[in-house]
Design goal:
The protein has 9 helices and no strands. It is mainly α. The two termini are 25 Å apart.
Length: 213
């Protein structure tokens, strides 16, 4: 969502030569996720990814400076699949996107890739920044969209202070992403409809409302 999800850091430098191929990019990112599941972070190489994707090694090297960039982009592409459903109420919308997020984390390629980059980032500041920009900041779109929709329905008040609104959005994202990732990947407990309903009650109404749900 995590979620969290700005431009990519690799986009800050102008590129020359032939235009990028969307088909090649998709093949490379898909091969990266498959290689992570099979080989793990330590054995993954850009050369192996190129072979799996059916492209020349230079095709990969032209697009990504190293393994960290490549794996983060492979994870980010999965998270970009998340959408906020319009289910008629803020609570129902939250439940819908949390269930989507949980389903994504059940996929071996998503689970393995996310845990690999998070573990590696503990000693790699540039990698942490890339995760923040390419995944966290991009996925905050879901919080902003959900809040705007709830305000239009009259479920939430309009916020006149942009700075305060941004801080609130950050907090909401951190709470949702942190809870779901911990539940699914750390505790290894199911993120099922009952848990999601109770979690949403906590998020929207506090512990008192959760106890009554």
């Amino acid at each position: 969502m995590v979620a969290s999800m700005c431009s990519h850091s690799r986009g800050t430098t102008a590129r020359t030569g032939r235009p990028r191929s969307a088909e090649a990019d998709a093949a490379i990112l898909d091969a990266t996720r498959a290689a992570l599941v099979e080989l793990g972070w330590s054995k993954l190489t850009l050369g192996d990814v190129a072979t799996r994707a059916g492209v020349a090694k230079t095709t990969v090297y032209r697009r990504w400076a190293g393994k960290s960039e490549l794996v983060v982009d492979a994870v980010a592409e999965l998270f970009d699949e998340l959408e906020l459903p319009d289910r008629g109420s803020l609570a129902a919308d939250i439940e819908g996107v949390v269930l989507q997020f949980a389903a994504l984390l059940e996929r071996p390629e998503a689970r393995t890739a996310l845990m690999a980059v998070v573990a590696e980032s503990t000693t790699d500041e540039p990698l942490r920044e890339r995760i923040r920009v390419s995944i966290v900041e991009r996925q905050k779109r879901l919080v902003l969209e959900g809040r705007a929709r709830a305000q239009a329905r009259g479920e939430l008040p309009e916020e006149t202070d942009p700075a305060a609104a941004a801080r609130t959005a950050d907090l909401i994202f951190d709470v949702i992403a942190g809870a779901v990732v911990h539940r699914a990947l750390v505790s290894c407990e199911p993120v099922d409809e009952d848990w999601v309903r109770r979690f949403t009650a906590v998020l929207l109404g506090g512990l008192g409302s959760a106890a009554e749900a």
